[in-house]
Amino acid sequence: MKKRILVVDDEPNIVRLLSLRLGANNFEVSVAYDGYQCVEVAKQELPDMILLDIKMPLGGGIKAFETIKNMDSTKNIPVIFITAFPSVEVKKQVLAMGAEDFVSKPFSSDMLIEKINTIFVNKANKSSEKSGNSTEYGQNPIKAY
């Protein structure tokens, strides 16, 4: 099953570029153009990841992120912030709040795809460890049929 990524940016050209690149890399894409739409689409579609601009109308990325992380249905969706206004302070802030990563515009779409894939692989590995599919501490991986 394809992973769905919600792309949120108030710049239509960025949304179009990301949508094309993600689609070409076998992801399904949903879009939103402001903080309010981001929250609404995230609640309705429960994407596997959100690419979120920081400076946008109607709440902005940080406010949308806080709202998403405070809802049970969306709190575990990984978020990568993308911004044209990078600052060390904001990067530290969003990472401390629980964002997966922080990418400055302009960015390499290949680098972004690599980050996305790495996050999905890491998330899958954590899930398999939690479900008991780990052989750490001498556990026997044999399953009963």
Can you give a write-up of this model?
With 145 residues, the chain is α/β, with parallel strands linked by helices. The protein contains 5 helices and 5 strands. The chain has a 5-stranded parallel sheet, with helices on both faces. Residues 134-145 have low confidence and may be disordered.
- What does the largest sheet look like? 5 strands, parallel
Low-confidence stretches: 134-145
Number of strands: 5
What series of H and E elements makes up the topology? EHEHEHEHEH
How many domains make up the 3D coordinates? 1
State the end-to-end CA separation.
26 Å
CATH topology: Rossmann fold
| Assembly of the depicted chains | single chain
Helix/strand layout:
Elements: E1 4-8, H1 12-24, E2 28-32, H2 35-45, E3 49-53, H3 60-69, E4 79-83, H4 88-97, E5 101-104, H5 109-130
Parallel strand pairs: 1-2, 1-3, 3-4, 4-5
Q: What tags apply to this protein structure?
A:
145 residues, single chain, 5 helices, alpha/beta, globular, 17% strand, Rossmann fold
What does this entry show, briefly?
The chain is built from 5 helices and 5 strands, in the order E-H-E-H-E-H-E-H-E-H. By secondary structure, it is of the alpha/beta class.
